[in-house]
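Hi C.,

You asked whether I'd gotten around to modeling the 342-residue construct. I have! Everything is below, sequence then structure, no commentary in between.
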Amino acid sequence: MGLWNWLVQGTWNTPAPVSPFSPQDSLETAIVGELFGVDPRIVTVDTAMRVPGLKRAIQMHQDVVSTMPLVQYDGGGVRSAEQPGWLQSSASGVPPLVRTKGLVKDLALGGQALLGCQLEDDRIVDAIHIPQAFWKITNAQLEVQEAIDAKYRQRLIYIPLGDSGILQDGVDTIRQARALDLARLVRLSSPPAGTELHLTDARFDEMTRKQKQKLARDYSQTRTETSVSVTPSYVEVKEHGDKAVDLFADATNSIRLDLANHCAVPAAAIEGAKAGGGGDMSYSNTSTERSELWDLGSRRYADAIAARLSLDDVSAPGTYVAFDVSDAFTTPTPTTAPVRED
């Protein structure tokens, strides 16, 4: 029985909620659904994370925020002498780093996240991230599935981002990216023929499919065995091998730029090579880029988590919780882990 199974007392692969944007019936939708079993216009957490640029952008925010330790400070900005153990440890077996990654992902995609806490005399002693698939808000009431261990439902800490998530604001761009991936798959699955045997005599238009296949096989076999080919007078050979297969590189880069804006990351961090330019992408993890990613993107998630954990139902009056960013932007990058309490 796996760790996650122990935490939720059930299977982990619970389906994510479907976007409220319902697709309309159309021939295109029917064909795509028949071929691939999916409708690119239905966006869930799972399908959204299959978009490479979106996945990379969210992972960047997760990595930036989760490597910073959560610390409790006194009102004057001084680190508290006694730190709450659950900030840097967990009896669940899931490290706080993974817990923070889950919170950041949910905040980025849905604009909200949830912590489940274990109490001891009304004091938080442990906490886990509860994935969005296991809770919902109905009529202003927070409902958590009983699959989550009861001890982690003793106190629920709802963390709002204060803004819509990418699944809402960026749903059109995600749909475009998914549709483009499916179109590329169709193109790769049935590339244009490299050689065309064009029948110039109308008398042969009534050839059966089997006869046409034999003509094509005979020509291909001859070309494989020798560099010389002989064709009947009614066959004109047209070579198309010099034509590049359009894999929608320009459209892909355009969508990645839109995703970068929605995800608040530097465009160069997720964009691909420009058409005809080879490896145009450049991104170095210097303090400048780290600072830009933090100030314009990752910080909003860290601030949302820290602000919620600083309220009096979590932190004692006169104290607050914040991420310790001191090691994150040190130049050169530290070679040792930041100091943690546990």
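If it helps when you're writing up: The longest strand covers residues 112-120.

Thanks,
B.
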